[in-house]
Amino acid sequence: MTLYEQAPLYLELPEVNAIVAHAGIKETYIGRHDKKVKSFVLYGDVTGAFHQDGRPVRRDWAQNYHGDQWIIYGHTPVMKPRMVNNTINIDTGCVFGNELTAFRLPEKKTISVPSAQPFINEKFQYFD
Q1: 14, 63, 108, 127: which has the fewest Cβ within 10 Å?
Q2: Which Gene3D superfamilies does this UniProt record tie to the protein (predicted)?
Q3: Can you spell out the DSSP letters for 14-82?
Q4: pTM for the whole thing?
Q5: Per-residue pLDDT of the chain (128 residues; tens, 9 = 90+)
């Protein structure tokens, strides 16, 4: 609990021009640490609506990111790392049976290892 309560909302890594945030971060939120930023970083860009299975509907905030810093995030499991506009979602659903993924900078390379957990397809977000 101490780690959770005292950890920063996001990590700034100027040596590789990157920010690590659990569910991502909007460019205008970088440098801020208020309640609005906390909600976004922890839960993503939620709309207030819900899918039939109870998951919150989230906007694809990465489509509108145009910053120079890399944003490395997860929270929404995807089958393969998803790069959009200097953002990368590396949550490849290890706990749901897919892979555990890391992103290396400055190389801009991903490394993934398979999970030993049973695969649960409905836990993954699929983008067109």
Answers
A1: 14
A2: 3.60.21.10
A3: GGGTEEEETT---GGGTT--SHHHHHHHHH-SEEEEE-TTSPEEE--GGGG---SSEEEE-SS--SS-E
A4: 0.93
A5: 998 889 999 999 999 999 999 999 999 999 999 999 999 999 999 999 998 988 899 999 999 999 999 999 999 999 999 999 999 999 999 999 999 999 999 999 999 999 999 999 999 988 86
Three-class secondary structure of residue 85 per DSSP: coil
Asked whether 53 and 72 are in contact (CB, 8 A), the reply is no
- Six-digit token string for 15: 């040596």
Q: What are the backbone dihedrals phi and psi of residue 32, each rounded to the nearest 5 degrees, phi first?
A: -100, 155
